[in-house]
Each structure stands twice: as C-alpha cells, then as structure tokens.
C-alpha cells in the first residue's frame, strides 16, 4: 500500500508538471541611474509547460497582439492607435526561454530591427539558507546568489512543483515567489497564477541573429552610440514601421521621422542606464 501511495503521488506530480501554467509577476525597476526615484512597475508572465518555460512582458504581449491583428487584417499601421501603443510601452523588451531537458537558458532582445539571441553561459550558484517565512499563501525558504554584478535574495516554495522563476532565475528546489537585489533596484514578486491552454509564440519582427553573450553586449553598446545605423540596416527585415495614430495628420517627412526616432532611441538608452545586469 505504501508503494502504491508513493506511485500515485509521483503520477500526480507528473500530471501537474505537464500542465501549462502562467505565473504573473510584478516587476519593480529603477532603470535610470541618474534618477532612482523614477520607479517603473509592470507585470510579466512566466509560462511553464512540461518541456520549457517562457518569461516575457505582459505589455509586450499586448502590443504584439495589436500589431498581429492589424497586419493580418491587411490594414497595416494606419489602423494602429498611437496612444494605445504608447500606453503599452515596456521596460521589459527581452524574453527568456528555459529548456527543461537541456537546462539551456536563451535570452532574446531586440537591437534596432533585429532580434539577438544568446545562450546564458554563467551558472547560478545558489547559497541555501535555513531561514523560512511566509509570503502570501506560500511557505518560502531563502537562497542567495551573485549574478551579473548584483547580489540577489530569492524566496522559493516547494508547495509548487517547479524549479523555475522569473527572468533567468531558477534551479532551486521550488518555484521562486520573490527575488530582489540588495540595492532594492530590481524585484520580482509573484502575484497570481492560472492555467493556460498553451504557451504563446511571441512575434519576432525582423531577423533573428544567434550570437555569443559577449557579442550581444558589444552590439548593445554600438546601438547606444549610433541607434540609426541599426534602424537603417537590414533592408527592413519585416520590422513594422513606426505606428501612426488613426486621426490623420498626412504624410510625415522621412528626415523628421528619422530624427525623432534617433532622439527617442537615445532618450530610452539614457532612461535605461541602470540595467538589471551590470556585468
């Protein structure tokens, strides 16, 4: 009877793990190094299936859905409401995919017109603590790690059968409920979870370029110095043109548009001068 009970529990855990679940995290960020009072907060999804997990911005998903419907409907950018798109701007422009079988962590981010992908080459070395507490309905245990120039504290629960977490974090004996850096500049807090039919496929406008992490960092630095060289290269690559409001306004001068795009890219780089990874 004892063996039957253990087998039944194992089958139950396998069934739970095979389901597709979405965990919604509130992400709090201080991305501007010169203005730490500028606090950004938005939601991100961690979708988990039996084979992999995917972490991405809720706003990015909503923006992608709007663009997809517009282009599939054949009406193009003229039908996209600029104010609606501006309201869905995100500080989480990347996505992170974890493969359960290979334990590989793939990071995807847009630079200009293209998507750059690299496989994370730095392991997460957790130091387990015996300290426990309760966050919401979950009993959680503490663990710490140094990663990418920040010291992180995570609280994980074994109440949920997933060795995963937001961003690149995972590998603990349970799901990460909360993780934050010691400076209080970045934190991820689990808000809720629910079942989903399947993992989403994020729109990938432009070319997908696989690189080493060091090469991605170099490309990022080049983009900050000369954003327009990235926007003009590649012949378009399927990247949608900047959306216009549906309220008319006539044709815009291409030179003026390029100037605005360059100013906006430089301003965004300034506002994101305190990235989640410092090294």
From TrEMBL:
InterPro entries reported in the protein's UniProt record: GLPGLI
Extent of the signal sequence: 1-18
Signal keyword on record: yes
Keywords linked to the UniProt accession: Signal
Basic and acidic residues bias (residue ranges): 256-271
Positions of region (Disordered): 225-279
A Pfam match: Porph_ging
Protein's UniProt name: GLPGLI family protein
Organism placement in taxonomy: Bacteria, Pseudomonadati, Bacteroidota, Flavobacteriia, Flavobacteriales
């Amino acid at each position: 009877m004892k063996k039957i009970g253990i087998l039944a529990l194992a089958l139950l855990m396998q069934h739970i793990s095979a389901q597709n679940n979405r965990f919604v995290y509130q992400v709090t960020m201080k991305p501007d190094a010169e203005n730490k009072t500028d606090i950004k907060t938005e939601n991100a999804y961690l979708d988990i299936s039996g084979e992999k997990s995917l972490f991405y911005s809720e706003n990015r998903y909503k923006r992608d859905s709007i663009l997809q419907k517009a282009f599939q409907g054949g009406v193009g950018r003229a039908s996209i409401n600029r104010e609606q798109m501006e309201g869905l701007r995100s500080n989480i422009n990347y996505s992170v995919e974890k493969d359960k079988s290979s334990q590989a962590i793939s990071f995807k981010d847009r630079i200009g017109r293209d998507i750059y992908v690299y496989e994370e080459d730095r392991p997460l070395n957790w130091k387990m603590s015996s300290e426990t507490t309760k966050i919401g309905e979950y009993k959680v245990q503490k663990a710490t790690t140094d990663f990418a120039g920040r010291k992180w504290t995570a609280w994980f629960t074994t109440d949920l059968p997933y060795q995963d977490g937001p961003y690149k974090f995972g590998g603990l004996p349970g799901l990460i409920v909360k993780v934050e850096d010691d400076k209080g500049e970045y934190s991820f807090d689990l808000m809720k979870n629910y079942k989903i039919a399947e993992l989403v496929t994020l729109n990938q406008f432009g070319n997908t370029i696989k690189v080493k992490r060091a090469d991605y960092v170099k490309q990022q630095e080049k983009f900050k110095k000369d954003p327009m060289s990235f926007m003009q290269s590649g012949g378009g690559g399927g990247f949608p043109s900047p959306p216009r409001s549906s309220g008319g306004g006539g044709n815009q001068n291409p030179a003026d548009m390029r100037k605005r795009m360059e100013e906006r890219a430089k301003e965004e780089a300034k506002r994101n001068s305190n990235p989640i990874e410092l090294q």
